Amino acid sequence: SRVTRHASRVTIYFYRSNKLIIKKIMFDFSDLDDCIKALKSEDPMVRASASRSLAIFTDKKSLKALMGALKDDNATVRSNAVRSLGTRGDAKATDSIIKCLEEDEEEVRIRAAEIISIFGINDKAIKTLKNTLNEPSKLVQIWTLYSLVKLGEEEYFDRLLDYAEDEDSKNRANAIGALGKIGDERSLKPLINALRDTSWPVRYRSLYSLCELGWIDKIEGLEEFLSDESPKVRIIALKAIGNSPDREHIDNIKSSLHDEDWEVRYNAVGVLERIATGEEIPFVEKVLKCERNPTVRISMESLLEQLRESA
Q1: Global confidence as pTM
Q2: Whole-number Cα distances in Å, 303 to 42, 280, 292, 296
Q3: What is the mean pLDDT of the chain?
């Protein structure tokens, strides 16, 4: 259609207990006019995709479109608009984001609480955030605490820490994610502890944060996460190990080419592209014969070509 002419398809997978429960098709728009047209689509997922894609534009026209998307009747559209405004960091949106903290939909309040600190210290924002701590949603409270700490209200850090040990795994995962985004030395111990959590989203958030913060050397037994029950955790572990310039974990990485999840195998090939040598040619040739996923096969063939050229 005209709306998606300049857009690339993105498939979003939603999992519960490591099982796929829903798959949604979204789009990344690269053309501003198509993006704005998409905001008028009857399909809320197209509008949500457009409001998310508007983050890449910085002119007044796109800002006006995003401010309009904050009034959409779909919560995901509004939530994505809030996220995009945060990515842009345009101070003109501050008052609108503050209003979103009083939204009916939890999804929008969570996003607003998370990104409000991006706009800098603002007395009205801090006052509203403190009032938001009285609301019933723990997830909103967690991201409100995060923003308060980011805005210099250090007395709220310990309250955020408490949520890292909450009985609800979703709350723990969000708290760990918030601590990772704060990223100072106080976050290190709770992030390390969360690596052994019984919930894979918590382990994923902690491992991802430690990698993003450059604290990989603080993780003991990093290779153990290549056997985690969650493919997402295994992928992050692969990427973390792949950042090492040596070949200490080459055998573990090669074993990941036998993983049951094709995305894990695909990422393993990506790591091997950086550290493999001609020694791996026979192994990759053997694994390629058994590979059935076309995306992984193409990446393996490219890897083989690279290794043969450098051998």
Answers
A1: 0.84
A2: 44, 10, 16, 10
A3: 89
